[in-house]
Each structure stands twice: as structure tokens, then as C-alpha cells.
Design brief:
alpha/beta; two-stranded antiparallel sheet
């Protein structure tokens, strides 16, 4: 979608780390990567996965994490024509959409102690993100993100009405 913004994030530390890429317009999680180290490789893979299946966003917004401000991340954004944006220091609300997304996924996932292995956690994350994208109703959208995306692609044709009369 031309002109849309996406946002990545890392969370779920200290057990592991997660990088997410979300379309801020639709609130859909476009890609994610789970890892055991907090690095620019993790965020780079999540971004590349998103770009494989979705058009390049006009803007990629993130917090001020070193992995998002790394030369590698900046070079990838430049190569795909993406303007890099970061929250201002001390203003975490500027990344509020992503913070809320991560909170929702964590709530759906439940306590991390229930997962004995990284594979179990991966399955739990897959299910939590699928729920977030396909079933969780977002207040602003009044529907789940995937339904919102479908509506954007196939808007309902409303009968043309002028002054309450059809077909005028």
C-alpha cells in the first residue's frame, strides 16, 4: 500500500526476543521472527520476510533500539526506498501502536513459563499472532486486521443515491 507506515519491535525478553513488522494502517502483523539473541539480524530477517510478501512501505517507524538504527537496517530501508523513522528519545508513546500490539500478543500467549522449549513458544506465538490478525477486534477498525485488509481490497459497492433516490 503506497503511503502506509509499518513498525517493527522486539519483545518477550529475557527468555527470547521477537521482532515484529506491523502495518500501522491495518494493524496487521506482516511478519515476525523469534530468536534467542537481541540483534540487527533478527530485525533484518523480519523486515525482509515482510518485504517478500508485501509492498515496501513509504515509512518504517520503530523505537530507538540499536538494531533499528544499525547501518544494516538503514541500508536495507534505503535499498527498498523506505524512509526510516524513529521515536524521539523519551517519547515511547510515539511507538504506541506497536507497544499495544506486543501487549495484546503477550496477553493472548499467556505466561512464558508454560512453554518448555523454544519450539513450544514458537507454536504459541504463531497461534497468538494468528488470533491477533484474524479474530481480535480492534477498536479503531471495528474488526480484525485481516478483515479490514479484505475490505480495503474489495470495498462493498453501495447503491448510488442522491437525495434518497436510487440510481439518480
Amino acid at each position: 500500500m503506497p503511503g502506509h507506515k509499518t513498525s517493527p519491535t522486539c519483545a518477550l525478553a529475557p527468555v527470547c526476543t521477537m521482532a515484529l513488522v506491523m502495518n500501522l494502517s491495518t494493524r496487521e502483523v506482516l511478519s515476525w521472527k523469534l530468536g534467542t539473541t537481541h540483534s540487527s539480524s533478527l530485525t533484518h530477517i523480519a523486515l525482509i520476510q515482510a518485504l517478500r510478501t508485501h509492498p515496501s512501505p513509504a515509512i518504517l517507524h520503530s523505537d530507538r533500539g540499536s538494531e533499528y538504527l544499525s547501518e544494516r537496517h538503514q541500508a536495507t530501508c534505503t535499498r527498498f526506498g523506505i524512509t526510516l523513522s524513529a521515536s524521539k528519545p523519551g517519547k515511547p508513546w510515539q511507538n504506541g501502536y506497536m507497544e499495544r500490539c506486543v501487549k495484546s500478543i503477550k496477553e493472548e500467549l499467556g505466561p512464558l513459563a508454560q512453554f518448555q522449549t523454544i519450539n513450544e513458544l514458537y507454536i504459541g506465538m504463531t497461534n497468538a499472532i494468528a488470533y491477533y490478525n484474524t479474530q481480535r477486534i480492534h477498536t479503531a477498525l471495528k474488526m480484525p486486521p485481516r478483515d479490514y485488509v479484505k475490505n480495503l481490497r474489495n470495498p462493498r459497492k453501495l447503491p448510488r443515491m442522491v437525495f434518497g433516490k436510487r440510481g439518480v
